Amino acid sequence: MQNVLVTGGAGFIGSNFVRYLLNTEMQVRVINLDALTYAGSLENLQNLPGPARYEFVKGSILDRELVDEILQKFDIDTIVHFAAESHVDRSILGPQAFVQTNIVGTFTLLEAARQLWVHGGSGRSKRVRFHHVSTDEVFGSLDPDDPAFSETTPYAPNSPYAASKASSDHLVRAYAHTYGLPITITNCSNNYGPYQFPEKLIPLIILNALEGKPLPVYGDGQQVRDWLFVEDHCEAIRLVLQKGVEGETYNVGGGNQPANLEIVQTICDLVDELRPDASLEPRRNLITFVKDRPGHDRRYAMNIQKINHDLGWSPRFALADGLRNTVAWYLDNPGWIAAIRQQQEYQGWLDKNYNSR
Ligand code: NAD
Ligand code: TYD
Q: Is the whole-model pTM more than 0.85?
């Protein structure tokens, strides 16, 4: 791993990964290709370590010419593919972008990699890797007593987002099977941590709690997710790049099963503690149950035995510690929040998603 193309590196997980990689791999050069959609921001990439080893290219993974040019110009040997439309609620209100970016975009990258790495000669395919970053949502929804998802659980995606990610996973797998493209895939559970765009549950609740706004909980709030601190996800991907077996997929998760309501209550208590305000406390009183998401998956859970046994990975951050770090980060970074909120589409999205609930 020398010249690494990160796609979607201006988004939440991608920007954390760029920072993590520059910090941990001193010989690596990172090229970040990001279209800077509403979800991506250069604010997430301020003060990177090793700036001389970092290059940003604004552009789309759908632009084949640009992707070809980057692969050649920077002699890319590793692609870590994060770029995607990633918000389930947006996929329900507007699925088309998900099909374009997540399916056609992944296809475009795969084609470019196949052309150069598999058919480009010079034994290149021996020392390259296409790593695809995916989600647990491809497996569908679990009942309370069902065993956790493993790498062999059949795919049963329920939302347009999950279906588009499942499609992209299948394409990646097929390119390995048919063309011998050296790939790995990680399917990870819900991430949280610094730089997450504040329309996803955890940052949205932190900011609303801070400002004394209603805290919208969908349905009965008893949906269960498996939460992973973003730095743990970055470490898992790095290990898979270094030690993962070509062609394999690895499930990644935090090993916890809180209900959404519990997460929201914990955030309320943390904000009460870290930013006391008698006029707003207890912030649990701000919790407001709103109309449920259509087709809302009830429960996700990840079996992480494979990555634990084969690569020695397990999460370092317990949920309580990760949540405390995250709340503290949002409280400590009002400048980032202000800049991100200027993003034109942000208020429009909040109105669209919540006004009619
Ligand atoms: P995000 O929405 O925060 O960031 C996505 C990034 O992709 C943005 O910077 C955006 O500008 C960029 N992008 C979108 N379309 C693009 C295009 N056509 N070309 C280039 N760049 C484009 O997403 P995230 O939460 O950081 O998720 C990153 C990846 O991880 C996604 O593939 C997602 O499916 C996967 N994932 C996310 C989670 C999670 O909890 N957030 C969990 C598991 C897997
Ligand atoms: P989200 O962060 O959108 O992630 P995902 O849907 O990919 O799991 O949502 C996490 C959970 O929180 C999910 O069960 C939906 C729920 N949720 C709410 O209850 N209220 C909200 O305002 C949002 C955005 C999500």
A: yes
